[in-house]
Write a structure and sequence with these properties.
By secondary structure, the chain is mainly α. Among the domains are: 2-89 and 116-146, 3-Layer(aba) Sandwich (Rossmann fold); 197-268, no CATH class. 48% of the residues lie in helices and 12% in strands. It has 11 helices and 6 strands. Helix 1 (9-20) packs across helix 6 (127-136), helix 4 (91-103) crosses helix 7 and helix 8 (173-196) packs across helix 10. The radius of gyration is 22 Å and the shape is elongated.
C-alpha cells in the first residue's frame, strides 16, 4: 500500500498505524517546492519510514504561488501519487471539508464530505489522536507553516470558524459535522444506486422520476471530460427538455441536449448556437 506522508502528525500517524496493522507500506513524500527547505522534509519522512520498516519514495510536483493554491497543490499531489494512495485525513479535516463545501453551495454529495474507505483510514480519528500517537512514540512531526496562512480559506475555517462554532454551540462541532457527514454519505450512496438504474436518455422516465433521482441521473450523464458535473441551472434546463418545455438546451463544452422521438440525445452544438 502507498501512503502519502508529508511528515506532519496526521500522515506520520497514518504510516505508524499502517505498519502496525501489518501492511507492506511505501511512504510517498511529495515536495511542491513552495518554500525554502521543503526538499529537506523528504529526508525526515525517509528517516521515519526506515525506523518503521516501510519503503520510501520521494516525488516532486512543483506548484507556482498564486490563486487557488490549495486546489492546485492537491491536484499536483494526486498526479504523482499512486492510485488509491492512503491519506491521513481525520475527522477534523472532514468537518473543515463540510464547512468549505457548504460555503461553495454544495448539495448532498458535498455535505457528505470525504468518503470513508481504504484510502481514508483515519477519518474516525481526531487530530488530537494523531498528535498523541506521535508524542507517545517520540516522533517529532514537521510543522508546515502554510497551515497557519490566513490567506488559505481552509486555515480560516480551521482556526476561526470552527472554534467560533464551538463557542456558540457550547460543544465540539467538528465531531457533530463528521458524524452528520457519515449519515449524509449513506443517503448519497443510496440515491446514487437508485439513479444508476434510471435511463437519463428516456425523456418520459426522467420527467416522471422523483426529482432528486432525475437530477442525479442527469448529473451522472453530463459529467464533463474534465470530470466536472454540470451546475444546477444546466440540470434544470435538461429536465425541462425532458418534460417537453423546450426542444433542446446548451449544456456547456460545445454540447447540447435535444429531445427527439421521446429520447434525449447529447450532441455537438450547432455552429452559432449559444
Amino acid at each position: 500500500m502507498a501512503a502519502a506522508v508529508s511528515g506532519g502528525p496526521d500522515s506520520s500517524a497514518l504510516l505508524v498505524l499502517a505498519v502496525e496493522a501489518g501492511c507492506a507500506v511505501t511512504a510517498v513524500h511529495v515536495d511542491h517546492g513552495l518554500r525554502a527547505g521543503s526538499a529537506a522534509e523528504a529526508e525526515v519522512v525517509r528517516t521515519l519510514a526506515v525506523r518503521l520498516g516501510a519503503d520510501f519514495v520521494a516525488r516532486r510536483a512543483v506548484v507556482a504561488p498564486g490563486p487557488n493554491l490549495e486546489a492546485r497543490a492537491r491536484a499536483a499531489r494526486r498526479s504523482v501519487l499512486p492510485a488509491g494512495a492512503m491519506t491521513g485525513h481525520t475527522a477534523d479535516d472532514q468537518a473543515e471539508t463540510v464547512v468549505l463545501n457548504l460555503l461553495r453551495g454544495a448539495g448532498l454529495d458535498g455535505l457528505a464530505g470525504m468518503r470513508p474507505g481504504p484510502a481514508k483510514p483515519l477519518l474516525a480519528l481526531r487530530r488530537a489522536d494523531t498528535l498523541a500517537l506521535c508524542a507517545s512514540l517520540g516522533i517529532q512531526p514537521l510543522d508546515d507553516p502554510t497551515n497557519a496562512d490566513p490567506g488559505l480559506r481552509r486555515n480560516r475555517v480551521r482556526h476561526e470558524v470552527l472554534p467560533l462554532l464551538d463557542r456558540v454551540a457550547e460543544r465540539d462541532v467538528a465531531a457533530v459535522m463528521a458524524r452528520n457527514a457519515g449519515l449524509l454519505g449513506d443517503d448519497a450512496r443510496l440515491l446514487e444506486r437508485l439513479a444508476a438504474a434510471l435511463d437519463p436518455t428516456d425523456a418520459s422516465a426522467l420527467a416522471h422520476a422523483p426529482l432528486p433521482l432525475a437530477r442525479r441521473a442527469v448529473r451522472r450523464w453530463l459529467v464533463s471530460e474534465a470530470g466536472h458535473p454540470p451546475d444546477r441551472a444546466t440540470v434544470e434546463r435538461v429536465l425541462a427538455v425532458a418534460r417537453g418545455v423546450w426542444r433542446a438546451t446548451e449544456v456547456g463544452g460545445r454540447r447540447r441536449v435535444a429531445r427527439r422521438d421521446g429520447r434525449l440525445r447529447l450532441e455537438p452544438s450547432a455552429a452559432g448556437e449559444r
